[in-house]
Amino acid sequence: MALLTVAVAGLTLGSFLLFKSRAGQAQVQVQRDAMLKIQQAVQGFAYAQGRLPCPASIRLGAEDCAAGTRAKGWLPVATLIDSGGDAQALLPSGMAVRYLVDRGSGAPARDLAAAGGVFHPALASSASAAAYPPALASTLDLCARLALAGEPAASEAAYAMAIAAPGATDEASGLNADFSRPGLEPAQRPTDAGYTDLVIVVTPAALYEAAGCEPTTASVDAMAMAAAWVDDANAMRASNIAKADNGVLTNSLGTAADALYMVDSLADLQNAVYNAGDNAAKAVIAAKTPPLWPYVPVHVGGIGKALGGLLISVVDVSRNAITVALRGMHAAAYAQMARNAAAQPVWQGALQMVARSHAAGMAASLPALPLAEPFEP
């Protein structure tokens, strides 16, 4: 009978230990499921707002960014749930979640809970840089902050969380529950009867990769370089129009000057014709009047001289007429060049597209990170 009693007691104890082990495993799974939902909510907020949320100062409360550089507190459940939503949908009853975010440790550009003012596309043109909107906030700014936070000797965690089992006391959560001290318990710390917290740490490098920061930043930088090329094309187009307009003006003035020369040559031609006719008439009269015969050679010479002047005037008139025609053609050609340059469909919206891409950041539907890397306080 005694042996039977011992056997039953041993079986009962074994069953109790097996039940307790299974119950513990089930509780850990509940914590893991809750942690995944919380991760998705935190990173969804980051993708939409271009920053990580600040900690809350009260349990289940909204983020408290007025506390300046508060880095550790409660998970801002009220901020993360949808408008009018239920906290129970995000966090099972009785679970306490402590939340830590890198606030830059005195370096504002590394503050992951701040938005905007960090990312600047690689605008090669000084004109584009001057025209670029100064205050844009998007996920690309979070990417720029993550890159700084991920530098050596910077932060080991972009954000971290500790989720306690229902009913766990603050004393049982250790460092996780002490908001006066930085850091959380190591993620690799095993759970036992006295410590049931599950800790997850997301490093800056991991969040940078998960958010698609590298290809998105490179894409916007490429568009920024294209915007600089558009600026160059616009400048070249404006230069071509100005040069063509100058060509029109120069050739128009030249045409006017040559036209004046042609008028002057026509006057010389008319004068030469008159002189030739006058000398011919005088030669005829001298030939018919014996006393005037000595003047016949003089008038004949005057005819020759007038004919020579006539020939020169004809050449000048012809040359000036050709020059006027050529300059007129050049002016017309330059005018057409100006019209063609002005009609070129050069894109004017490149810089605005870069700004819109910057402001849009990346999609807010990226998955949460299945990470549980150690974070040493």
Short description:
With 377 residues, this protein is mainly alpha-helical. It is built from 10 helices and 4 strands, in the order αβααβααβαβαααα.
List its traits:
377 residues, mainly alpha, four-stranded antiparallel β-sheet, 58% helix, 5% strand
Strands, count: 4
Task: Give me the side-by-side strand order of the main sheet.
Answer: 1-2-3-4
- Low-confidence region ranges: 1-21, 363-377
Structural domains: how many: 2
Number of helices: 10
Distance between the termini: 56 Å
| Helix share, percent | 55-70%
Instruction: Look at the helices and sheets and give the structural class.
Output: mainly alpha
> Rg from C-alpha positions?
46 Å
**Major sheet:** 4 strands, antiparallel
How much strand content do the residues show?
under 5%
Shape: rod-shaped
Order of helices and strands: HEHHEHHEHEHHHH
pLDDT average, as an integer?
73
Textual characterization of the structure:
By secondary structure, this protein is mainly α. The protein has helices at 2-49, 77-80, 87-90, 126-131, 139-149, 170-173, 204-210, 213-288, 296-343, 350-360; strands at residues 72-74, 97-101, 159-163, 198-202. The protein has two domains: 25-212, no CATH class; 238-349. Helices cover 58% and strands 5% of the residues. It has a four-stranded antiparallel β-sheet with strand order 1-2-3-4. α5 runs antiparallel to α7 (204-210). The longest helix has 76 residues, at 213-288. Residues 1-21 and 363-377 have low confidence and may be disordered.
List the helices and strands and how they pair.
Elements (H helix, E strand, L loop, with lengths): L1 H48 L22 E3 L2 H4 L6 H4 L6 E5 L24 H6 L7 H11 L9 E5 L6 H4 L24 E5 L1 H7 L2 H76 L7 H48 L6 H11 L17
Antiparallel strand pairs: 1-2, 2-3, 3-4
Helix pairs in contact: 5-7, 5-8, 8-9, 8-10
